[in-house]
Design brief:
11 strands, about 50% strand
């Protein structure tokens, strides 16, 4: 069993930055993958970024490429999402997920993730 806890959300002005954290507990195997998604009210869960736990390959949605960066700390079993140049349309609840085994072909699909955190709210004011 794996538990994921997100943190780092909050209120920020447009143009600002936030770094979200996703702390994992339980057994994380090398063939895990971690992903970040967000969900705004009335919308579907949207893929943002993913990384393979082993090797650290990263993948991004076109909508955030160049603004968001996914990274991880193996020793702390924590995945991060650095978000820069935030816009009001980035307002949403942000979730991290764990996929076992990781597949770069399906990393953008929410239903392929086995575990989810509770989410953290990000609000970007104009």
């Amino acid at each position: 069993q794996v538990q994921l806890v997100e943190s780092g959300g909050g209120l920020v002005q447009a143009g600002g930055s936030l770094r979200l954290s996703c702390a994992a507990s339980g057994r994380i195997f090398s063939h895990f993958g971690m992903g970040w998604f967000r969900q705004a009210p009335g919308k579907e869960r949207e893929f943002l970024a993913a990384t393979a736990w082993s090797g650290g390959s990263t993948y991004y949605a076109d909508s955030v490429k160049g603004r968001f960066t996914i990274s991880k700390d193996d020793a702390e079993k924590t995945t991060y999402l650095q978000m820069n140049d935030l816009k009001p349309e980035d307002t949403a609840v942000y979730y991290c997920g764990a996929m076992l085994p990781f597949s770069r072909l399906t990393a953008h699909i929410p239903r392929t993730y086995n575990y989810w955190g509770q989410g953290t709210q990000v609000t970007v004011s104009p």
